[in-house]
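5-hydroxyisourate hydrolase, Halomonas piscis. Tokens?
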Amino acid sequence: MGYLTTHVLDTAQGMPGQGIKIEVFRIKGSEREALKTVTTNDDGRCDSPILEGDEFTVGEYELVFHAGDYLRGQGFKADEPRFLDVIPLRFSVSNASEHYHVPLLVSPYSYSTYRGS
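Tokens:
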């Protein structure tokens, strides 16, 4: 059975992104269906899979990372509005029986992601 996980890494400080709020959406055409909101733990991960079982199906999803709140809390000085604040990552699941790991590597001025396992 497949499932979805994430991991946030603060590349500016070389540490996990702790306490970051992540909103989870399913995309159907032009509609966004809110599924849940999770928060990263001390290791920058969620305590359990974000989606699994019947919740995790073939289709398009969006993870919305509230990185600006985290960066403010870390004391990064930046002009307001910040260059990066809320980061949406939209991706597709083609095989819901696989593990989709969608990490976020973030700093005050850049981010990247990839599909891990």
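The CA atoms of residues 65 and 87 lie 5 Å apart.
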